[in-house]
Amino acid sequence: MGAAMTVGDFSRVTHLSIKTLRHYHEVGLLEPANVDPGNGYRCYRPEQVPTAQVIRRLRDLGMPVAEVKAALAADDLGARNAVIVAHLDRLEADLAATRSAVESLRNLLQHPATAAASIEHRTVRAASAIGIHATVDRGEVGEWWQGALGELRTAVRVQGLRQAGPSGGLYASELFQHDRARPPCSSRSRAPCARSGALPGRSAPRRQRRDSGKRSTRSGNAATPS
Questions:
Q1: Which residues of 19-57 are buried (b: 16+ CB within 10 A; e: fewer)?
Q2: Residue 185 and residue 124 in contact, taking contact as beta carbons nearer than 8 Å
Q3: Fewer CB in 10 Å around end: N or C, the chain?
């Protein structure tokens, strides 16, 4: 074990400010090796430098403190990677939302609305479908939607089907009025001897809210034998 380092020296080596080190101590993310009971002065050990560098790297990548703590406390590589993958999925969902917003803004610039949209009513023939549904908060619909579509496409591929129509969704008005609803994500499929059915519900992270039994939303894509 190396000689103790002052908080100033540890800050210079790790590139973590003294204020940040104090915060990480308070939240239990990176505790000093010793704290003087008289003046509260903190000291660290050289062996703590690698951990501090990992913390700084993960925080630079936008990982919340609670998840950094979970990654460091993981008992094995799989558990640690699960925390990192969860953060990666969230970043990818945020990136997809940003790209969608950018595309919408470009469309507004390139195609300004000059007339009312034309609405056409038509009837389509019935088709079988597989689906997923879960109670989802409005802010989490995008992330849930991407994951649900991925599971449905995998199920279609495993059953030897081929998507024969676009993916889509029918959203309950409660999702926009109360920021929470139960949106099933479904995929239409059609094949000899193939049965359609519901996949297990894929629940999005939930905040503490009361579920008032709101109507469901639906999404789907058609499939035919490959």
A1: ebbeebbeeebbebbeeeeeeeebbbeeebeeebeebbe
A2: no
A3: N
**Verdict on whether the full-model pTM lies above 0.90:** no
Relative to beta strand 180-181, strand 136-137 is antiparallel
Q: Over the stretch 134-169, which tens digit does the pLDDT of each residue have?
A: 778 888 887 888 888 888 888 888 888 877 777 767
Maximum Cα interatomic distance, the chain, rounded to a whole number of Å: 80
CA dihedral 81→83→88→91, nearest 10 degrees, is -170
Between strands 136-137 and 218-220, the pairing is unpaired
The secondary element (H helix, E strand) that includes residue 103 is helix 77-110
**Two tokens at 124?**
């389509």
Distance CA 111, CA 158 (A): 41
CATH of domain 5-60: 1.10.1660.10
Are 185 and 118 in contact, with CB atoms under 8 Å apart? no
